TrEMBL record:
Gene3D superfamilies: C2 domain. Keywords: Membrane, Repeat, Transmembrane, Transmembrane helix. Residues 252-353 form the C2 domain. Residues 138-162 have a biased composition (Basic and acidic residues). One of its GO terms (biological process) is calcium ion-regulated exocytosis of neurotransmitter. It comes from Lasius niger (Black garden ant). Residues 52-162 are annotated as: Disordered. The lineage of its organism: Eukaryota, Metazoa, Ecdysozoa, Arthropoda, Hexapoda. GO terms for cellular component: axon; exocytic vesicle; plasma membrane; presynapse. PROSITE patterns: C2 (PS50004). The chain crosses the membrane at residues 20-44. This is Synaptotagmin-4 isoform 2. InterPro entries: C2_dom (IPR000008), C2_domain_sf (IPR035892), Synaptotagmin (IPR001565).
């Protein structure tokens, strides 16, 4: 080899290998270039579509500018037709008509049979029919619906006022079977029950039966949802009751003596529970363990509750306990305020009655 040239020809040297960093750099550069080209193409296409859509909308909604010209009626030589006036705007009469609006055919005769039909001009818009009849019909319907709604609301308010102090009625049947020593009770239905509250116009009533004074038999009917006139027609039979134990008598539930004091300056109502007498026998011993529970109602909703201490083994308890209720600020005196007294018999094991 002489001067880099072999005896048989030029000297051939091997190519140097390309590094990995160079390949990665080239690939990244190519990827970035492709992304830039794609984004540029998408932006140009979107801008072109947007400009095309805007031009289409402007052409679609741009009314053609036409200069109103008078159209000569073919059936007359002295009358001209112009653009029909707006139904809501004042009508203008053409010159020479004497202040009267000419008909589209150029004739003022009221007989339609004697008037020749004139073809409508292409430049004259068709006059829209008046909508006074439709508006009057809509107003009549709205008025009728409003009157019906007011009537329904009035009937509901009257029914609520009538049932305000009415607890409803319970219809049932009693039959005693002497051969079986059984008492059969049939709960038929209820009528005119009060609603659960002022917001709800219905109730979910059920009837519970219990034999006094032993309180050994507890039965109840099924619950009927969303009704104030439930119909049950359910039979219950109590066995093991002799004829001597069956005593049907009419007696009161006793008397409760209370005292009320209203203080309008401080908006407070003081209730004093004094005593009770002639209470029914609730226990096996022939006595009871009474106490009084008081509810304050505002707009037929309970907002406060108080109760006395339990008086053990007596039918004529003396309480002498006072309670103070704060009346809401928005109340107009005692017009929407009422009190509910419940005299219950306390039991350690069973539910209070």
């Amino acid at each position: 080899m002489v001067g880099g040239v072999t005896e048989g020809g030029p000297l051939i040297r091997p190519v140097e290998p390309v590094s990995t960093a160079t390949l990665v750099t080239l690939c990244l550069g190519a990827g970035i270039l492709l992304c830039v080209v794609a984004i540029t193409w998408m932006l140009c296409r979107r801008r072109r579509e947007h400009s095309k859509l805007s031009s289409d909308k402007s052409l679609a909604f741009r009314p053609p500018h036409r200069k109103p010209t008078a159209v000569k009626s073919p059936g007359s030589t002295s009358h001209y037709l112009k653009k029909s006036p707006s139904p809501t705007g004042p009508a203008k009469s053409p010159p020479g008509s004497g202040g009267q609006t000419p008909s589209p055919t150029g004739s003022q005769s009221s007989n339609p049979a004697s008037q020749p039909r004139t073809p409508q001009s292409a430049g004259t818009p068709v006059q829209t029919p008046p909508v006074e009849v439709a508006v009057s019909i809509e107003n009549e319907r709205d008025k009728a619906e409003l009157e019906n709604n007011e009537k329904v609301e009035r009937e509901k308010s009257q029914t609520a006022e009538n049932n305000k102090d009415n607890l409803g009625q319970l219809v049932f049947k009693l039959r005693y079977r002497s051969e079986q020593n059984a008492l059969a009770v049939t709960v038929v239905k209820c009528k005119g029950l009060p609603a659960r509250g002022q917001q709800n116009a219905t109730s979910d009533p059920y009837v519970k039966l219990q034999l006094l004074p032993d309180k050994q038999h507890h039965v109840k009917t099924r619950v009927l949802r969303n009704t104030r006139d439930p119909v049950y027609d359910e039979d219950f039979t109590f066995f093991g009751i002799s004829q001597s134990q069956l005593q049907i008598q009419s007696q009161g539930r006793g008397e409760l003596l209370v005292s009320l004091c209203w203080q309008p300056v401080t908006s407070r109502l003081t209730v004093v529970v004094l005593k009770a007498r002639n209470l029914p026998k609730m226990d096996v011993t022939g006595l009871a363990d009474p106490y009084v529970k008081i509810y304050l109602l505002y707009n037929q909703q309970r907002i406060a509750k108080k109760k006395t201490h339990v008086k053990k083994r007596t039918l004529s308890p003396v309480f002498n306990e006072s309670f103070v209720f704060d009346i809401p600020n928005g109340a107009d005196g005692l017009n929407n305020v009422s009190l509910e007294f419940m005299l219950l018999d306390w039991d350690r094991v069973t539910k209070n009655e």
